[in-house]
């Protein structure tokens, strides 16, 4: 099918090292023995990027055909198909599924695009169910680590502003900064810089986050209060965002450039970098605040939490190493030997956070760099 795609100007396309499925492995060759496998210091893993841009990606103009609940897997080239009985067998749960009526013409020579062997990754672009109702704007919440030297922090802010400049004008943008504490910025309050502070040493639940912000789940849902008018987005006629709306923490990308430039981190660099100690970084609490806020207030909306982290979590829930530099960051061998003191607590915390994000249908992008550990 890729042969049918014309390349403009007759130029030869650049080979894709990740292949059509966007899969990158952590190894070049598979170990041939247990001895070789024991010498591997890097864990066996694969990075998959199914939503990356590719000129050879096949776009199907209809909705995917899914396996019966609770599986929900999508019809794919690895499914077994009985063309006579018009059923397909899921390769994950082995359930037998009947093709819907509009697949009545399927046969060995007439199959849908997702059954072609070269279409292991496809993009679905179904027509909107209700063209009159526009989809809600996407939300991008930046979680910025301020435990950096001033020069590095300046580079990070510059990169964040460039990223926001690439977003659609109607996309909503929010900001959380964290160090020893978590600071949620109310970007919709234009008169002055307004920040909600969360302690970085204590685990906080979604309900506590909402109570702290005046968005209690008992009275507020999707930006509305029981018995009050529903505010969907944007300010009130007087120019102010309603105090019970999550949109006071989010601004359209076209309007937030000046606001983000005026944000000043309340972190004092003098007490972050103490001699012989790592920076106190409460990454776990920052991610909990981001997930709790967006999950309770804009659940079901397309959301990406973009975390820009400059080092390991050293304080509060989710910490993986203490602040003392004499304690090295655990390696893969330490994990195999169960010699990492904070591992089990961190795994439990991040597993719960991952389940919360999955249930909400939200995405967490984590950009991490810790050059002081190299």
UniProtKB/TrEMBL annotation:
Organism, as annotated: Ensete ventricosum
Say which domain of life the source belongs to.
Eukaryota
Q: Where is the protein found, in the record's own terms?
A: Cytoplasmic vesicle, COPII-coated vesicle membrane; Endoplasmic reticulum membrane
Family indicated by similarity: Belongs to the SEC23/SEC24 family. SEC23 subfamily.
- Membrane topology category: Peripheral membrane protein
Listed name of the protein: Protein transport protein SEC23
Alphabetical GO CC annotations of the entry are: COPII vesicle coat; endoplasmic reticulum exit site; endoplasmic reticulum membrane
Function in brief: Component of the coat protein complex II (COPII) which promotes the formation of transport vesicles from the endoplasmic reticulum (ER). The coat has two main functions, the physical deformation of the endoplasmic reticulum membrane into vesicles and the selection of cargo molecules.
Q: Where is the Sec23/Sec24 trunk domain?
A: 135-374
Recall the GO molecular function terms of this protein's record: GTPase activator activity; zinc ion binding
């Amino acid at each position: 099918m890729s042969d049918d795609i014309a390349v403009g100007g007759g130029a030869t396309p650049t080979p894709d090292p990740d292949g059509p499925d966007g899969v990158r492995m952590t190894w070049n060759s598979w170990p041939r023995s247990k001895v070789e496998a024991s010498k591997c210091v890097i864990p066996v893993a694969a990075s998959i990027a199914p939503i990356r841009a590719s000129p050879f990606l096949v776009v199907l103009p209809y909705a995917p055909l899914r396996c019966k609940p609770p599986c929900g897997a999508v019809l794919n080239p690895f499914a077994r198909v009985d063309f006579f009985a018009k059923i397909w067998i899921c390769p994950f749960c082995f359930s037998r599924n009947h093709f819907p009526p509009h697949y009545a013409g399927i046969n060995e020579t007439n199959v849908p695009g997702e059954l072609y062997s070269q279409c292991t990754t496809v993009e679905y672009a179904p027509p909107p169910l209700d063209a009159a109702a526009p989809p809600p704007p996407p939300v991008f919440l930046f979680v910025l680590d301020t435990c950096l030297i001033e020069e590095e922090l300046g580079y990070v802010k510059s990169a964040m502003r460039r990223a926001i400049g690439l977003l659609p004008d109607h996309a909503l943008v929010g900001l959380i900064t964290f160090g020893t504490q978590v600071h949620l910025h109310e970007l919709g309050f234009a008169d002055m810089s307004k920040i909600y502070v969360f302690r970085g040493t204590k685990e906080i639940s979604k309900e506590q986050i909402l109570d702290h912000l005046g968005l209690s789940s008992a009275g507020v849902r999707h930006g509305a209060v029981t018995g009050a008018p529903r505010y969907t987005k944007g300010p009130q006629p007087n120019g102010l965002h309603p105090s019970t709306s999550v949109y006071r923490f989010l601004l359209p990308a076209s309007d937030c450039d000046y606001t983000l430039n005026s944000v000043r981190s309340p972190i004092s660099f003098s007490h972050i970098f103490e001699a012989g100690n790592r920076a106190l970084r409460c990454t776990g609490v920052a991610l909990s605040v981001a997930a709790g806020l967006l999950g309770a207030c804009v659940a079901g909306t397309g959301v990406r939490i973009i975390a820009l982290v400059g080092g390991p979590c050293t304080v509060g829930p989710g910490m993986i190493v203490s602040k003392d530099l004499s304690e090295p960051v655990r390696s893969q061998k330490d994990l195999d030997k169960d010699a990492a003191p904070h591992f089990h607590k961190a795994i439990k915390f991040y597993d719960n956070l991952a389940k919360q994000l999955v249930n909400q249908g939200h995405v967490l992008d984590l950009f991490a760099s810790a050059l002081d550990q190299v």
